[in-house]
Structure prediction request, 397 residues.
Amino acid sequence: MTGFEQDRLWSGWMAAAQDGDNAAYARLLREILPFLRVLARRRCADPDRAEDVVQEVLLTLHRVRHTYDPARPFTPWLAAICDRRSIDALRKRVRHGARETHDERAYETFADPRANKDVEASIEAEALQAMIAELPPGQREALELVKVKEMSLVEASRVSGQSVGALKVSVHRAIKALRLKAGAPE
Amino acid sequence: MNTDDLIAELSSTATPVRRLAPPMARALGWLAAIAVLAAVPIVLRSNLPVFAQRAADPRMAIELFATLATGVAGVIAAFHLSIPGRSSAWAWLPAPFALLWVVVSGVGCLQFLPEQEQAGWALGQRHYCFFFLLGVGLPLAGLLVLVLRRAHPLQPRLVASVGALGVAGLAAFILQFFHPFDITVMDMATHLVALAILVGFLDLVGRPALK
Prediction:
């Protein structure tokens, strides 16, 4: 099929689509895909981006389909839409590229790789919580105030009503008990 | 969504559409409607004998032609540029007339400068031209955008700029019917500021409306 014959065929389908023939429209959109992909890949080397452009072209074609005049060739009309959308995509990419920086570590939560072992960390945290829950109430409260909430001994004393000395002893015993439960050497 | 699904969705939801008339026919129709609208105040309120007398001057006749031609060419070009696949060379259509307009106006105000002496630089009643150009130009710009946006132009900035030049030419042409004096330097400056506001308006307001 020559380019002229192909254009007449597409033009006929487009005219039918304008009149409400949805089957002709579907056939047209499928038939023009290879043509659009070739045009899009001339400007976008990345196949995924080129396919995005093709989809943008299809959406634009749909929106402006009333502007096509069946008395004129179809291919220049279609190529103009594809060209414009390719340029828009290129500009968008340049604009985004100027504002964004690629950071390979962006998917990690902390700079220290050891801190990113989320699964292990959460398992260990659960085990530790269970061990703390088993401590005597005085030791548990002292440990939570001084070590977990990081209060000073004076503040913890005011909150708990225990003396500073008693808190020191309770925290020391609590840590010793946890170390024993965790199987650490004394 | 993959492309096949998109095609299926677009083709299944498509409804029949009414084709736009050829851009030249639409442009001429729009210009004819504006001519009818403008003719009413021109016939009722302007001093046509004075206008005819001024138009007999060759420089003035050229200026009138240049403003009208810029207006008509700008509007025709904007209609063509709003349709995909039409040559972008249409954007140049009003350029020679606009250039002629600027040159002839410039020559006019320099020619009368010695006679007008200080008056040529005075602001005086020039605010009348300023508000006239905006008062005529802004509604014209709005009416043009209203019609052009039906095509959803792919290059709204280009269409808005060329359309603004067309509207500026038409507004300047209509002004001549209500402007019974020769142009001075300050006239030209106020005209340019008003026209710049018009172009800026179409670029800021018209461009998003055309998208």
